[in-house]
Amino acid sequence: MGARRAEAAGAGARPRRMGRPPMADQEAVIGAALSIGFSGLSMSAVAERLGVSHSTLYRYFPSRDALAAAAADHAVRAIEWPEPGDDWRAFLTATAWAHWRLHAANPGLAKEITALRLTGPALVDRDNRTGVALLRFGFAPQDAALIVDMLAELVIQAFLAVPPVRDDGDDGAAAPGAAGEQTVDAVQSRRRELIEPWLGAFDPRLRDVLAEAVSGPSADWFERKLNLFLLGVASLAR
C-alpha cells in the first residue's frame, strides 16, 4: 500500500527543471545594469538579462533610478582617479580626463546626471576629494567648489549628444572598451551632422576652425576647451 502511494505521488509530481536556476544578488543586478548601459536601462531590461522576475530586483533597489545611482557609483569606483601631487594644473587636467574615461565607458551617464536623476556616495566623494585638494593648493572655498562643478560640466557637455549604444543581444552590450569607442565616435558624428550644413554661414576665418573641430578627434577639441578653462582657473590661484 505504501509503495503504491509513493508511486502515485511520484506520478503526480512536476518534473524537476534541469540546469542552474536564475541567480541574482545586488552585485549581479548592478553588473547587468552596467552591461545594458544607462541609455537603455530599465527594471524590465535588467530582469530579462538576468532571467528573473521584477520582484526579485525590488528586493535590492526600490526603483529604476535607485539602481542607476548604484550603477553610477560602481562605474565611478572603477575609474582610476589621480592623486593631487604638487601641481594643481596637472591634477585638474588628469581629473578631467578621468571624467572623460568615465563617460566614454558609460554612454548615457551624462544625461542621467544632468537630468538630476541620480547622485551617490562615489560621485559625492569624488567631488569632495577634488575640492579638498584645491583647498590645499590654496584656492578659496568658493572658487574650489566652482572649479569642481565647472570641470565636471565641461566633460558632461561633451557627451550629452551621444545616442544610445545599440545592444545586439549577444548576452550584453558592447565590451567596455568598445562602448567607449562607440561613444566618442557618436559624439563627433553628431557634431558633424549638426554643423556641416551650416558651415557656409560662418565667417571664413571661423569656418576652417569649426570644420577642423568636427572632423578631428573629439578629444582634441575637448583638450582645447580644457586648456582655456585652466587659463581661467589660473587667475584664481593664490
Automatic annotation (TrEMBL):
Residues of the DNA-binding region: 42-61
Domain HTH tetR-type: from-to ranges: 19-79
First and last residue of the signal peptide: none
Keywords associated with the record: DNA-binding, Transcription, Transcription regulation
InterPro entries registered for this protein in UniProt: Homeodomain-like_sf, HTH-type_TetR-like_transc_reg, HTH_TetR, Tet_transcr_reg_TetR-rel_C_sf
GO MF terms, alphabetically ordered: DNA-binding transcription factor activity; transcription cis-regulatory region binding
Residue ranges, annotated region (Disordered): 1-22
Transmembrane segments: none
Highest taxon of source: Bacteria
Pfam families linked to this entry: TetR_N
Iron-sulfur recorded as keyword: no
Name used for this protein in its record: HTH tetR-type domain-containing protein
Native species: Streptomyces violaceusniger
